[in-house]
Amino acid sequence: MSAPPSPPGDIASIAALGLLSDEVAACRRCDRLVRWREQTAADKRAAFADEGYWGRGVPGFGDPAAAVVLVGLAPAAHGANRTGRMFTGDRSGDFLYAALHRCGFANQPTSVRAGDGLALRDAYITAAVRCAPPANKPTPTERDACRPFLERELALLVNARVAVALGAFAYGVLCTLAGIRPRPRFGHGVTVSVPADGPSARAGGLSNVSHIVCSFHPSQQNTFTGRLTAEMTDTVLRDARRLADLPLSN
């Protein structure tokens, strides 16, 4: 399947997304995360010993005119921290991009490295935290320090109508941005309406998003144990297409 060219979108927003990506990559706000991402990039994993690691903050990736935004937890130490592209170069990304391809969001089922030909249509992938954290566990302080990046990014994705939370951590951050209190209990397939008159409607961020759709994170702990299956992921992505008024893929 080949994805058609992306719509032109808003030129100012596209330029601003590029500047934001540069800012994310240059960020050194959290000492612990900077040390960890750079140490991991220096030590490397044996399988990638001959590769250069990105070792910086990881920007979002995808279609600037996306109607659906997928939000994960943080880059993987030897995945996006190595390749510089969200959910790229690890088992979680293998699972997720295959699903995006099946559901009409990606032109190919694999995401190996930047420049591998992958393109997204109507979808954009980002994360609540932009640096690889030790044990995949950012602290609340690190989460809050990174949150403005996500808020600004979502505000620039002017066509976004649905946010897919990949895991409870991302769901909590999205609910905070949307001003949803108390928030409904997280669960796979749970769909939450974003209040049109909430704080996000006044301050940007999720102002264009009408729904948050929850999915278990595509981590190996979930996919290898069967807690998250390909069928379950496809259902969530097709629900997101429907809520975003996108035609369902074949």
Topology:
Elements: H1 11-26, H2 31-43, E1 61-62, E2 68-72, H3 80-83, H4 91-102, E3 123-127, H5 140-156, E4 162-166, H6 168-178, E5 191-193, H7 199-203, E6 211-215, H8 220-223, H9 230-243
Helix pairs in contact: 1-5, 4-9
Our Rg estimate from Cα atoms comes to: 17 Å
* The first-level CATH class name: Alpha Beta
Coarse shape: globular
Query: Strand fraction band?
Result: 5-15%
Outline the structure in words:
This protein has 250 residues and is of the alpha/beta class. It has a single domain (11-243), classed as 3-Layer(aba) Sandwich (Uracil-DNA Glycosylase, subunit E). 38% of the residues lie in helices and 10% in strands. It has 9 helices and 6 strands, in the order H-H-E-E-H-H-E-H-E-H-E-H-E-H-H. The chain has a 6-stranded mixed sheet, with helices on both faces. The model is unreliable at 1-8 (pLDDT under 50).
Key features of this structure:
Uracil-DNA Glycosylase, subunit E; 6-stranded mixed sheet; alpha/beta
Q: What is shown here, in short?
A:
This protein is α/β, with parallel strands linked by helices and 250 residues long.
